Amino acid sequence: MSTHGNKWVGEAAVQEEGCRALCNAAFNSNNQEKLIAIGAHDAVREAMAAYPERMDLQEIGCCFIGNVTTENDEAKKKLGPMTGLVLAALGAHPTVADLQEEGWRALIGLVQEKENRSLAISEGGLKVIVDVMRDTDDASILRFGCLALLQLVKDNEVRKPVVDLGATPILAAGIKNFPDDAGLQEVGNKLMKKLGRA
Question: How many Cβ atoms sit within 10 Å of the Cβ of residue 101?
Fold first, then answer.
């Protein structure tokens, strides 16, 4: 898998295995800066863009993004252009549990960067997030959605659009339906308070 001018972009299976190798390498924090330096993120971006229908590839790509952005502020900036790809994966495959987990992890890492928050909103991210939360009965997806929205509503002007999309009743139902999920209770109530000031 080439990391510059990806010559294997026509071979989906090769792309998938290449992304898997990069994702595995990125689990080691010592490798992350090296991977960014050689353009590994560009290879993953090209693969995700070329094969949006391949759920495994999208999951692996999101895994790579999540691995390198979790604690690396510079990576958050460099991988910002991949925000739209992560949102597309989340929206296109709302019932695929493993992809959802990796996608939310990637998105939450990316939107900790202010410029990526703006990019996520311009890419229709608020609607994607609220729609996925509306259609799920999985407490973990609701919790991830709350974490992502908590990042996005740091900008006060974003709160009203989130409310207008119907997030408040979704949150209220989730908090009611999953009383034993401490994480959801915490982030859900925190988000409700912020949206209450919209």
Answer: 18
What single-letter amino acid sits at 151? Q
pTM of the predicted structure, to 2 decimals: 0.90
Contacts 24+ apart (CB under 8 A), 125-132: 125/83, 125/87, 125/152, 126/152, 126/158, 126/161, 126/162, 126/165, 127/165, 128/87, 128/90, 128/91, 129/90, 130/162, 130/165, 130/166, 130/167, 130/170, 131/91, 131/94, 132/90, 132/91, 132/94, 132/100
CA dist 141 and 187 (Å) reads 12
Please give the structure tokens belonging to residue 37.
């330096």
* Confidence grade of residue 6 (pLDDT, cut at 50, 70, 90): low
pLDDT of 72 reads 87
Core vs surface per residue 107-128: b (16+ CB within 10 A) or e: bbbbbebeebbbbbbebebbbb
Give me the residue spans of the domains in the chain. Answer: 1-123, 124-198
- Contact between 99 and 58 (Cβ < 8 Å): yes
Q: What is the pLDDT of residues 41-92, one digit of tens each?
A: 999 999 999 999 999 999 999 999 999 998 889 999 999 999 999 999 999 9
Angstrom distance (rounded) from CA 30 to CA 79:
18
Q: Which tokens hold the place of 115?
A: 């410029």
